[in-house]
Automatic annotation (TrEMBL):
GO terms for molecular function: ferrous iron binding; oxidoreductase activity, acting on single donors with incorporation of molecular oxygen, incorporation of two atoms of oxygen. The keyword Oxidoreductase applies. Residues 8-271 form the Extradiol ring-cleavage dioxygenase class III enzyme subunit B domain. Transmembrane segments: none annotated. Residues 282-301 are annotated as: Disordered. Residues 288-301 have a biased composition (Polar residues). This is Protocatechuate 3,4-dioxygenase. It holds the Pfam family LigB. InterPro entries: Xdiol_dOase_suB. Keywords: Dioxygenase, Oxidoreductase. It comes from Pelagerythrobacter aerophilus.
Length: 301
């Protein structure tokens, strides 16, 4: 059976992609940011996951105001890096895992998450920067990736509670896939940052660290943080952190932290990174799925 082995949270700051692509990782400004990923690169080499369900947001690269899916899953074979205005990043195309992705899509939709299905798209810094952080310079990515895109760009984004519930539904989907695969779930974006307006440059180290603390162990109370708190405390782009709750929801009741890294500043953004291992990975069954199954039973009886 496929199983979720770890969850990883990671900011996706575009300037880190720029520094990485232009050999600037060792420069004074960038070194402390990159050093915090050395532990994880070694861990990934030893751990060798087969597939990552990579939760991220598109920044008007694949979608624009014409179409704004709340939750979308990539079921395609491969995803080239997007040109975000300065040419595409010189990183390999991302290979999908179509069989597992279609299985997850089916399971989520029957579990009453109405996913948008994507077969072709380009992926931007939201997805490729975390891959570079975790794998370093490679000719091909040594893992398959299922992109899971979340709208956090245009109001209204999904609630943190809904994101957590989606994570639980992803865990149910993965555990019902018959192939023996090691699957990680990543949540990207954040931490505190605001890129425009009078509060541009806002960083809230105290709130960010509270969020990191509470993602470890039993994190249920994070589900209740309202949008307005993310906006007020962490700036307009801090709302990206609801995506971390999809990752956390997929890890079940309790977790322990294997690695933690926080650094300010990178660009206008607080960099946060966490590697989590499920301690009690049990995820509650979906009541709606049970109801659907009961209804299906009556149909076939
Ligand atoms: C920056 C950070 C982001 O998360 C993003 O998506 C775009 C820009 C920044 O710090 O510049
Ligand atoms: Fe972003």
């Amino acid at each position: 059976m496929a199983r979720i082995t770890h969850g990883i949270a990671c900011s996706h700051i575009p300037v880190l992609g720029y520094a990485f692509d232009h050999g600037k990782e060792g420069e004074d400004y960038f070194r402390p940011a990159f050093e915090g990923f050395e532990w994880t690169r070694k861990f990934m080499k030893e751990e060798k996951p087969d597939v990552i369900v990579l939760v991220y947001n598109d920044h008007a690269s694949a979608f624009d105001m014409k179409i704004i899916p709340t939750f979308a899953i990539g079921c395609g074979e491969s995803y080239p890096p997007a040109d975000e205005g300065f040419g595409a990043r010189p990183v390999p195309p991302v290979e999908g895992h179509a069989d597992l992705a279609w299985h997850i899509a089916q399971s989520l939709i029957l579990d009453e998450f109405d996913m948008t299905i994507i077969n072709e798209m380009k992926v931007d810094h939201g997805l490729t920067v975390p891959l570079s952080m975790m794998y370093g310079h490679v000719d091909t990515w040594p893992v398959k990736v299922i992109p899971l895109a979340v709208n956090v760009v245009t109001y209204p984004p999904p609630s943190g509670n809904r994101c957590w519930a989606l994570g639980e539904a992803i865990a149910r989907a993965v555990s019902s896939f018959g192939e023996d695969l090691k699957v990680q779930v990543w949540g990207t974006g954040g931490m505190s940052h605001q890129l425009q307006g009078p509060r541009a440059g806002l960083i809230n180290t105290e709130w960010d660290n509270m969020f990191l603390d509470r993602l470890i162990g039993d994190s249920q109370d994070l589900r209740q943080i309202p949008h307005i708190e993310y906006l007020r405390e962490t700036g307009s782009e801090g709302i990206e952190m609801v995506m971390w709750l999809i990752m956390r929801g997929a890890l079940g009741r309790s977790t322990r932290a294997l690695h933690r890294h926080y650094h300010v500043p990178v660009s206008n953004t607080a960099l946060g990174h966490l590697v989590l291992e499920p301690v009690d990975g049990s995820v509650p069954p979906s009541p709606t799925l049970e109801q659907s199954n009961a209804a299906a039973q009556t149909l076939v009886a």
